[in-house]
Amino acid sequence: MAGEPVQRREATADEAKAVAHPLRIRILQVLRGETLTNKEIAQRLGATPGATLHHLHLLSEHGFVEAEEARPGNRNAREIPYRATGKTLGLSFNPAMPESALVGPAILESALENYRRAPGSGRLSETSVTLFLSPAQLSAFQGRLHALIEEYAGIGPGAEARKYGFFAAMYQPDAEQSGSSPLPAGGGAG
Fold first, then answer.
1. Taking the model in full, what pTM does it have?
2. Is residue 171 within 8 Å of 105, Cβ to Cβ?
3. Which distant-in-sequence residues (6+ apart) come within 8 Å of 114 by Cβ?
4. What mean pLDDT is predicted for residues 154-159?
Protein backbone atom coordinates (compact mmCIF):
# COMPACT_ATOMS: atom_id res chain seq x y z
CA MET A 1 0.00 0.00 0.00
CA ALA A 2 1.30 3.48 -0.87
CA GLY A 3 2.80 5.42 2.01
CA GLU A 4 3.52 2.39 4.20
CA PRO A 5 7.19 1.50 4.76
CA VAL A 6 8.43 -1.53 2.87
CA GLN A 7 9.64 -4.36 5.07
CA ARG A 8 13.03 -5.25 3.67
CA ARG A 9 15.05 -8.40 4.04
CA GLU A 10 18.55 -9.16 2.87
CA ALA A 11 18.67 -10.77 -0.57
CA THR A 12 19.95 -14.31 -0.78
CA ALA A 13 23.03 -15.00 -2.89
CA ASP A 14 20.83 -16.50 -5.64
CA GLU A 15 18.48 -13.50 -5.63
CA ALA A 16 21.42 -11.11 -5.83
CA LYS A 17 22.95 -13.06 -8.73
CA ALA A 18 19.59 -13.01 -10.51
CA VAL A 19 19.42 -9.20 -10.58
CA ALA A 20 23.15 -8.41 -10.81
CA HIS A 21 23.10 -7.65 -14.52
CA PRO A 22 22.31 -4.28 -16.12
CA LEU A 23 19.91 -5.73 -18.72
CA ARG A 24 17.96 -7.62 -16.05
CA ILE A 25 17.61 -4.43 -14.02
CA ARG A 26 16.44 -2.57 -17.12
CA ILE A 27 13.89 -5.34 -17.80
CA LEU A 28 12.52 -4.97 -14.28
CA GLN A 29 12.29 -1.22 -14.72
CA VAL A 30 10.50 -1.39 -18.07
CA LEU A 31 8.03 -3.91 -16.61
CA ARG A 32 7.22 -1.72 -13.59
CA GLY A 33 3.53 -0.96 -14.00
CA GLU A 34 3.33 -2.60 -17.43
CA THR A 35 2.83 -6.04 -18.91
CA LEU A 36 4.91 -6.62 -22.03
CA THR A 37 5.93 -9.50 -24.26
CA ASN A 38 9.54 -10.49 -24.79
CA LYS A 39 9.50 -8.84 -28.23
CA GLU A 40 8.10 -5.58 -26.80
CA ILE A 41 10.72 -5.58 -24.03
CA ALA A 42 13.53 -6.17 -26.52
CA GLN A 43 12.30 -3.31 -28.73
CA ARG A 44 12.04 -0.89 -25.81
CA LEU A 45 15.52 -1.74 -24.56
CA GLY A 46 17.27 -1.98 -27.92
CA ALA A 47 18.21 -5.61 -27.21
CA THR A 48 17.71 -8.84 -29.08
CA PRO A 49 14.67 -10.97 -28.22
CA GLY A 50 17.01 -13.92 -27.55
CA ALA A 51 18.95 -11.96 -24.94
CA THR A 52 15.85 -10.61 -23.21
CA LEU A 53 14.20 -14.04 -23.17
CA HIS A 54 17.25 -15.55 -21.47
CA HIS A 55 17.15 -12.84 -18.80
CA LEU A 56 13.37 -13.11 -18.41
CA HIS A 57 13.67 -16.83 -17.70
CA LEU A 58 16.29 -16.19 -15.02
CA LEU A 59 14.22 -13.41 -13.43
CA SER A 60 11.13 -15.62 -13.53
CA GLU A 61 12.98 -18.54 -11.94
CA HIS A 62 13.76 -16.33 -8.92
CA GLY A 63 10.33 -14.69 -8.64
CA PHE A 64 11.18 -11.22 -9.98
CA VAL A 65 8.85 -11.49 -13.00
CA GLU A 66 5.81 -13.61 -13.75
CA ALA A 67 4.49 -14.79 -17.08
CA GLU A 68 0.86 -13.98 -17.72
CA GLU A 69 -1.55 -16.12 -19.73
CA ALA A 70 -0.48 -16.48 -23.38
CA ARG A 71 -2.36 -14.39 -25.92
CA PRO A 72 -2.62 -14.60 -29.72
CA GLY A 73 -0.09 -12.51 -31.61
CA ASN A 74 0.72 -11.79 -35.23
CA ARG A 75 0.31 -14.65 -37.68
CA ASN A 76 -1.29 -16.86 -35.02
CA ALA A 77 1.88 -16.78 -32.94
CA ARG A 78 1.51 -17.20 -29.20
CA GLU A 79 2.77 -14.23 -27.17
CA ILE A 80 3.53 -14.44 -23.47
CA PRO A 81 3.31 -11.16 -21.58
CA TYR A 82 5.45 -10.67 -18.47
CA ARG A 83 5.04 -8.43 -15.45
CA ALA A 84 7.38 -7.45 -12.64
CA THR A 85 6.39 -8.77 -9.20
CA GLY A 86 7.93 -5.89 -7.23
CA LYS A 87 10.11 -8.32 -5.28
CA THR A 88 13.19 -6.07 -5.51
CA LEU A 89 11.40 -3.36 -3.52
CA GLY A 90 11.50 -5.64 -0.47
CA LEU A 91 15.17 -6.59 -0.74
CA SER A 92 18.38 -5.00 0.43
CA PHE A 93 21.73 -5.96 -1.05
CA ASN A 94 24.61 -6.16 1.40
CA PRO A 95 27.84 -5.28 -0.45
CA ALA A 96 29.79 -7.48 1.98
CA MET A 97 28.26 -10.53 0.24
CA PRO A 98 30.15 -11.11 -3.05
CA GLU A 99 26.97 -11.74 -5.08
CA SER A 100 25.29 -8.61 -3.71
CA ALA A 101 28.37 -6.50 -4.34
CA LEU A 102 27.65 -6.89 -8.07
CA VAL A 103 24.14 -5.40 -7.80
CA GLY A 104 25.24 -1.79 -7.21
CA PRO A 105 27.46 -1.58 -10.32
CA ALA A 106 24.69 -3.24 -12.38
CA ILE A 107 22.18 -0.65 -11.13
CA LEU A 108 24.61 2.16 -12.00
CA GLU A 109 25.26 0.77 -15.48
CA SER A 110 21.55 0.30 -16.18
CA ALA A 111 20.72 3.79 -14.90
CA LEU A 112 23.38 5.36 -17.11
CA GLU A 113 22.14 3.41 -20.14
CA ASN A 114 18.54 4.48 -19.47
CA TYR A 115 19.66 8.08 -19.07
CA ARG A 116 21.71 7.96 -22.30
CA ARG A 117 18.69 6.63 -24.19
CA ALA A 118 16.31 9.29 -22.80
CA PRO A 119 15.62 12.12 -25.24
CA GLY A 120 16.87 15.55 -24.19
CA SER A 121 13.35 16.61 -23.28
CA GLY A 122 13.07 13.56 -21.02
CA ARG A 123 16.11 14.45 -18.92
CA LEU A 124 14.45 16.36 -16.10
CA SER A 125 17.26 17.03 -13.66
CA GLU A 126 20.75 16.09 -12.59
CA THR A 127 22.53 16.93 -9.38
CA SER A 128 25.95 16.19 -8.01
CA VAL A 129 26.85 17.51 -4.61
CA THR A 130 29.43 16.89 -1.92
CA LEU A 131 27.98 16.65 1.57
CA PHE A 132 29.82 16.93 4.88
CA LEU A 133 27.87 14.88 7.42
CA SER A 134 28.45 13.46 10.87
CA PRO A 135 27.50 9.78 11.34
CA ALA A 136 24.18 10.88 12.89
CA GLN A 137 23.47 13.29 10.02
CA LEU A 138 24.36 10.61 7.46
CA SER A 139 21.94 8.18 9.09
CA ALA A 140 19.19 10.82 9.20
CA PHE A 141 19.79 11.83 5.57
CA GLN A 142 19.69 8.24 4.34
CA GLY A 143 16.57 7.51 6.40
CA ARG A 144 14.69 10.50 5.02
CA LEU A 145 15.79 9.77 1.45
CA HIS A 146 14.77 6.09 1.68
CA ALA A 147 11.41 7.03 3.25
CA LEU A 148 10.71 9.52 0.45
CA ILE A 149 11.66 7.02 -2.26
CA GLU A 150 9.53 4.28 -0.68
CA GLU A 151 6.56 6.66 -0.37
CA TYR A 152 6.59 7.46 -4.07
CA ALA A 153 7.69 3.99 -5.25
CA GLY A 154 4.46 2.64 -3.76
CA ILE A 155 2.36 4.66 -6.19
CA GLY A 156 1.24 2.60 -9.15
CA PRO A 157 0.08 3.57 -12.62
CA GLY A 158 -2.93 5.85 -12.77
CA ALA A 159 -4.96 7.98 -15.16
CA GLU A 160 -2.63 10.98 -14.99
CA ALA A 161 0.52 9.18 -13.84
CA ARG A 162 3.53 8.93 -16.14
CA LYS A 163 6.55 6.71 -15.68
CA TYR A 164 9.80 8.37 -14.54
CA GLY A 165 13.19 6.89 -13.85
CA PHE A 166 15.07 7.92 -10.73
CA PHE A 167 18.57 7.01 -9.65
CA ALA A 168 20.52 8.05 -6.59
CA ALA A 169 23.92 6.92 -5.42
CA MET A 170 25.80 7.84 -2.30
CA TYR A 171 29.45 7.04 -1.84
CA GLN A 172 32.44 8.01 0.22
CA PRO A 173 35.13 9.01 -2.31
CA ASP A 174 38.02 8.64 0.10
CA ALA A 175 36.81 5.62 2.11
CA GLU A 176 39.92 3.55 1.32
CA GLN A 177 42.35 6.33 2.14
CA SER A 178 40.66 7.31 5.41
CA GLY A 179 40.35 3.73 6.62
CA SER A 180 36.62 4.09 7.27
CA SER A 181 34.27 1.47 5.96
CA PRO A 182 31.20 2.32 3.90
CA LEU A 183 27.77 1.60 5.30
CA PRO A 184 25.82 -1.39 3.95
CA ALA A 185 23.78 -0.55 0.87
CA GLY A 186 20.08 -1.03 0.52
CA GLY A 187 17.59 -0.57 -2.22
CA GLY A 188 16.16 -2.42 -5.10
CA ALA A 189 15.96 -2.26 -8.79
CA GLY A 190 12.26 -2.10 -9.47
1. 0.78
2. no
3. 26, 29, 165, 167
4. 82
